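Final report, results section. Input specification for complex C-07:
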Amino acid sequence: MPVQLHKAKLSEKTIVGGKFMFIKLELFEPNKIVFEAGQYILLNTPSTPQKRQYSIVSAPRLDHAIELLVEIIPNGVASGYLNSINPGTEVDFYAPAGEFTIKPEVESSQDPLVLIGTGSGVAPLRSMALDQLRTKETKRPIWLYWGMRHADELFWLQELEELHDNFPNFMYHLVLSQAPDEWTMCRGRVTDCLSVHTMPENAHYYICGNPHMIEDVMKTLAVRGIDPNKVHHEKFS
Amino acid sequence: MSDTAQPVPPVTGDISVAPADKATSPGKYRVKVVRSKCIGAASCVAIAPKVFALDDKNLAHVISEDELDDIKLLAAQSCPTAAIVVEEIATGKQVWPV
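Structure output:
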C-alpha cells in the first residue's frame, strides 16, 4: 500500500507503565487502513513540519483504527502534543510506512519467530505477535523478549499471560535491567537474557529498539551462530 | 515569532545526490542524503520510492530527482534524523531542514 494521508480522531489515551501512552486513533478519512504488522505511521504535529514515526501496536485486523504506544519524552514535540490533546481531537498522519514486516517467504514457512524489543520497541512486535497468533492462527513457536528498566514500567502483563495461555506456541521473557530482589525472570540487558536461552537456528529474529541495543543484540546473535540473513531490525532514533 | 533568518545546519559527511543521468527535476527542488546521519528507517523510500533507495548497508541514497516537490519535501520531513536536505535548484537555498 502506498503511503497516504489519514485523518483520525483520538478516541483513547491511557498512561501505562508510568511513562508511556497507549493511544487509539479512530479513522474517518479514509475510514479504513491497510497495513502490515510491523509498519509505522508518520505523525503530523502542529508545531513543526517534521513528522514523527510511531509503530502501529495493533494488528492489521483492526482496520478502522490504529493503536500506538508512545513514550512520553520530557519536552518531546510529538509525545508532548499527544499528551496535551483530548479525545475527539483530530490527528493526521501518513501511513503505512516501513519494511520491518514478516516477509512472504517467512510467512509461508513454519519457521519460529523470535521478537526482541526494549521499551516502546515492543510496539511493532506486539502487532506481529497478535497478527500471527490471532489472525493467522500460526502454530509456529513465537518468543518475545522484552527489556525494560524497572518493574513498575511493565504493562500488558495480563495480555501476555493470556496470549501464552491461549496459544501454547507463544512464550515470552521479561527482562529488567534494574530488577528488584524478588524478580524471578531475567535480569540485566536483553542480551543477557538471550545469552542464557536457546536460540533456534531456523528462527527469524525481529529486533526493535535504539541503535545501540540493536547492535548489541546482533552481536549476541552472531556469537550464537545465527545467520545474519535471518535477523531483521527497526531502529528507533 | 522571530523574523530573523534561521541558522542552516551545515551539511557534512558522506553526501548522496542523484546520478547525473537522473538529476533532472520536474520541479524546483533537489535532494541530498547525508548518509552519516541515516539510520535506515526507510520512511523516505516508503514515501518517495522513485527518489530514494536503500543500499546494501541499509542506508538511503538518491537514485533520481524525478518526483514532485511536495513528495520530496514530505519524504525529507519524515526522516527521523533529518538526514535528507532539500534545496531550491535555482538559488541553492536550503528549504529543509530549517
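The longest helix of chain A spans residues 122-135. The two ends of chain A are 24 Å apart (CA to CA). This concludes the modelling results for the funded period.
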